[in-house]
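Renewal narrative, Specific Aim 1. Our central claim is that a sequence can be written position by position from structural information alone. The example that follows is taken directly from our test logs and has not been curated for this report. It begins with the structure tokens describing the chain, in the order in which they were read.
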């Protein structure tokens, strides 16, 4: 029986993969045999360090610095990657930011910046990567959504609007591109222990206690918990899965929660 989860030799571009969930998925796909194209826009040093971290684990990895919100940079980076590394088989739109500001106090510029990076850039990068996937009649696109694709939360309005939009953009990409044998799905991480959640995860922080009580698994996720979902949605095993958001959330979306005096 062929290994339905085999991604050996595939080329995977993961945006925003110098750290956090992006790096975790890079390790997961890399350990499963994919060649990883690391992307970042902060500094070449960070990109080089991420590439070395992967290579030290025996993973084939290269790095490209480009700003996912600037179409010209994305277009030339995709051309460069496809010329130097090979056709992009898997795209994970992971790059994203969050701003935790009460909606009434949020500046328009802050709102626009979150939408630009978290929603517009997956559109830009997917548009330019999908062209080759459509020509080759094969490809996998994974958009990193969020609990906030389904639920609101105080102070993260721009992020929720972006991630809710990314859920629907995923469904629309599937609507338009599935006929070319391109599968476009999303992963919705629950609450994970990353730099991004560090400010709300410290022991004793009310939100930390809330998440532990609100999550049936009663813990924050470890970034490595995402590797399985990423491999599934990058492999033949998901060839008839399209427009689906796979939540990896410890069960938080399955329940309304329970009173504090219940086990
Ligand atoms: C927050 C968190 C969340 C998580 C994740 C949940 O402030 O609520 O940062 O946004 O990062 O997106 O799926």
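The sequence written for that structure reads:
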């Amino acid at each position: 029986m062929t290994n339905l989860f085999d991604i050996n030799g595939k080329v995977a571009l993961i945006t925003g993969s110098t750290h956090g969930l992006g790096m975790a998925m890079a390790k997961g796909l890399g350990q499963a045999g994919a060649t990883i194209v690391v992307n970042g826009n902060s500094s070449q040093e960070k990109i080089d360090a991420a590439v070395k971290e992967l290579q030290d684990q025996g993973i084939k990895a290269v790095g490209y610095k480009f700003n996912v919100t600037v179409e010209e940079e994305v277009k030339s980076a995709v051309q460069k990657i496809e010329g130097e590394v090979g056709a992009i088989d898997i795209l994970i739109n992971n790059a994203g930011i969050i701003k935790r500001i009460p909606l009434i106090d949020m500046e328009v510029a802050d709102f626009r910046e979150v939408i630009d990076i978290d929603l517009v850039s997956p559109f830009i990068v997917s548009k330019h990567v999908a062209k080759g996937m459509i020509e080759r009649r094969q490809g996998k696109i994974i958009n990193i959504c969020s609990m906030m694709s389904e639920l609101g939360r105080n102070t993260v309005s721009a992020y929720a609007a972006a991630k809710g939009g990314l859920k629907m953009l995923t469904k629309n990409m599937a609507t338009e591109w599935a006929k070319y044998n391109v599968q476009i799905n999303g992963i919705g991480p629950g609450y994970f222990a990353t730099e991004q959640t560090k400010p709300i995860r410290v022991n004793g922080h009310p939100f930390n206690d809330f998440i532990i009580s609100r999550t049936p698994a009663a813990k924050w996720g470890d970034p490595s918990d995402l590797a399985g979902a990423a491999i599934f949605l990058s492999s033949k095993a998901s060839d008839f899965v399209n427009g689906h958001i796979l939540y990896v959330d410890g069960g938080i979306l399955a329940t309304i929660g329970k009173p504090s005096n219940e086990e």
